[in-house]
């Protein structure tokens, strides 16, 4: 193991125990505030949407109340769409993009589809600008009923009454340079594995469900986002983050097998967005706008398909 790949917690080749997790937590600082950045925007939206408290996370002496916003009134005769942001709390445009969609574009879809939006699924991670939760657990690999992520299990309980009605779930993410410099190194150390260097795609891309990719749907989103920011090209092997590119800016993962958020509704149309805020070709505002464009394009496409 080379010096550049060594992570300063744990013993190379050995998985972390509780002592290492405590040490890791000690390295995390509260860098921004969920109660100041996110909750006031949710509160201001409560005059247009139903504000739904759907859980509480208690970590040491910190408590985070979780909120979603839903169409009001909710029409049981209409299909439903789920928009999630901040499953990885450090991915800022996922959170801001979800809120910005509600503030600026959600009204365009009123009385056509029921919207359920969870803007910040992982507030502890949002505050620490971290991929993991308090327990060094990745929520987006633990969406299962018996999983170790309260962020995931609370969201799964929220959607339970609407299962069977969802036509769409779009999960808003971003890929940053710290994926390579920090989080993949931490993952390798936590799991007792060797860190293998990778690369960060420069641009927007989507992660579709390998079992049912719905490529025309994915292409419609990419086409809409291309007017806002650039689309990530494949590497020399025709891949993005090690996965074959199946259409411009589209790769696939087995969402359910990986315990990913995008698998929880059983909706026929699902996708996970990824923007690149560290690109010299994109601004934070463009990344937020790209998320909004992706949500709108996804909704437009699904509504154009009727009940198909």
Q: What can you see in these coordinates?
A:
31% of the residues lie in helices and 19% in strands. It is an alpha/beta fold. It has one domain: 3-Layer(aba) Sandwich (Aminopeptidase). The strands form two sheets. An eight-stranded mixed β-sheet has the order 1-2-4-3-5-10-6-9, sandwiched between helices. Helix 4 (92-104) packs across helix 9. The N and C termini lie far apart (52 Å). Residues 30-308 form the Peptidase M14 domain. One of its GO terms (molecular function) is metallocarboxypeptidase activity. This is Peptidase M14 domain-containing protein.
Taking all Cα atoms into account, the compactness measure Rg is 19 Å
Q: What is the distance, rounded to the nearest whole angstrom, between the alpha carbons of the first and last residues? A: 52 Å
* Residue fraction in strands: 15-25%
- If you consult CATH, what is the topology? Aminopeptidase
